Amino acid sequence: MTTATAAELEAAWAERVRANREQVDRIREVPDHDFYAPVSSLFVADPRRTGEEALEALLALTEPGDHWLDIGAGAGRYALPLALEVDEVIAVEPSASMRNALRTGKEEHGLTNLRIVAGAWPDALEGLGDPPVADVALVAHVGYDIEEIGPFVDAMERAAGRLCVAMLTDRSPASVADPFWPVVHGMDRVPLPALPDLAELLRARGRRTEIQRVERAPRTFDSFDGLATFLRRQLWIAEDGEKEQRFRSSLAEMARERDDDGWTLAAPPVGSIGILTWSPRG
Description:
Layout: H1 6-27, H2 53-59, E1 67-71, H3 79-83, E2 88-93, H4 96-108, E3 114-118, E4 134-140, H5 149-159, E5 160-169, H6 181-185, H7 195-204, E6 209-214, H8 224-235, H9 242-254, E7 255-257, E8 263-265, E9 273-278
Parallel strand pairs: 1-2, 1-4, 2-3, 4-5
Antiparallel strand pairs: 5-9, 6-9, 7-8
């Protein structure tokens, strides 16, 4: 059991997020108008795919007649397959490029039960109707960089009637680029909060949590340039500068081509994915 109070843990969370953001502001070479615009296609996935342990664990939580809320749904990596299984999915997403990718997936797969809502959480809750607005509220790899995590979780719990679900990694997904920071920027990356921090916070709030661990498979990309594009966004560097040259040189040593023609890092992030669940009523 944690010995820190919920308020202390929320303050520590906010401090880490601010330090992470301030570090980016000091070194950034590119603007942040829509962070995901150049890479939104990398988050598109077949909703009928099989063999993904995390998705299978998520679908096992569904019940007949369910309505799900996917907060920060992105391009629909989980919203689309959920819509194939439940009565309705409300997908809240602030990024215009991600919403466009989500609409494309919705139309391609004929999912009339997927409702796409533009907005950031928790402000988007106000426009969804009287809470609870769904049986289950989900965040999948969302929340690591949310400074005010307390109000974020509060709104998530108000939105859910039966269950809250957070799919997170032991270290934030952005940490995949951490090995490049000393080479490119001459400093270590300030780590964001992740799964262990949220679990500790929820316990301090009096929530009884369960965590199901699933495999974190190495992320692969169709090409070397696809891998480079993804990592470059986490380094905040321009494609025509001195730092880009150092990045490319390092990537040539750290990347490898898999037997199935996909590209990944020779030393991918360690740790697992956790499916964290708790009752919204404490």
